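Translate structure to sequence.
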């Protein structure tokens, strides 16, 4: 017969399903367009974790970050380096030898923006720890320039507006909750909350290329501060698939979700083609 214990177990809610997308390397404009297309799907109840790379290397600017006069126009930029403005906040990041993650979920699925930020970082930390790396979350005291978002001014450091000196590179400082190894930033993340959905994405550095993220960072290199890559921590950098599998496990353990590899829908693909034009445009890229 059915015991009371088994009846109770049957009443437990099924774990949330987390669709996992693993995309090939793409341009900055395409990557940002695809990330934004995941937000309407999250509104419809499809939670997504996406992994991707960048080709060519790309400097990304935060949504509200001033571009300033120190980023040179296209003809004078370092050859092979692209520039894009993200939909999320934060500051400049150079995307090259890294694995980028993004999550698109309803803004209450994992407890609101601040808690979501912390829980996603905890999931990433669990995955990275599988390679024997000790990862810690940055405390408030490490913050020099909080990340920016599209949200109004707030006391929440995750959702705070740009501070003076916001033209600095993202990896030059650590915001609360960002992941450190050996006291240096390994994972930098940013959020955008819009119409009931959170988009959070960030860079998991395989190698430290962040000397190209400081302004004027697309034209000339200068020493990076504060960043570290997996290559500095391991004798051999894990291959992309091994790293993704470890990170999937981290999300399952931390958030109690069931990850499932999937594909983008036809609507998402259609919307991405339209949004790519936005992220390619000078009106968006140089809007500030």
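Result:
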């Amino acid at each position: 017969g059915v015991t009371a214990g088994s009846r109770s177990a049957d009443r437990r809610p099924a774990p949330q399903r987390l669709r996992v997308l693993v995309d090939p390397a793409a341009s900055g404009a395409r990557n940002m367009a695809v990330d934004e297309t995941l937000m309407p799907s999250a509104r419809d109840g499809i939670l997504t974790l996406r992994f991707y790379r960048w080709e060519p290397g790309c400097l990304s600017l935060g949504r509200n970050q001033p571009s300033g006069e120190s980023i040179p126009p296209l003809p004078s930029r370092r050859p092979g380096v692209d520039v894009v403005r993200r939909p999320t906040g934060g500051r400049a990041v150079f995307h090259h030898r890294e694995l980028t993650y993004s999550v698109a979920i309803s803004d209450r699925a994992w407890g609101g923006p601040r808690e979501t930020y912390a829980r996603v970082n905890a999931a990433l930390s669990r995955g990275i720890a599988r390679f024997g790396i000790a990862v810690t979350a940055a405390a408030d005291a490490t913050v020099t320039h909080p990340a920016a978002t599209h949200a109004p001014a707030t006391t929440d450091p995750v959702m705070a507006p740009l501070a003076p000196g916001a033209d600095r590179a993202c990896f030059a400082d650590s915001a609360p909750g960002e992941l450190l190894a050996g006291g240096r930033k390994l994972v930098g993340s940013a959020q955008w909350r819009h119409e009931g959905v959170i988009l959070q994405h960030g860079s998991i550095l395989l190698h430290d290329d962040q000397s190209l993220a400081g302004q004027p960072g697309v034209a000339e290199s200068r020493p990076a501060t504060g960043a570290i890559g997996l290559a500095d921590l391991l004798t051999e950098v894990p291959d992309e698939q091994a790293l993704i599998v470890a990170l999937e496990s981290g999300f399952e353990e931390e958030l109690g979700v069931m990850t499932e590899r999937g594909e983008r829908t036809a609507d998402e693909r259609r919307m991405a083609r339209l949004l790519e034009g936005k992220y390619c445009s000078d009106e968006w890229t140089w809007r500030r």
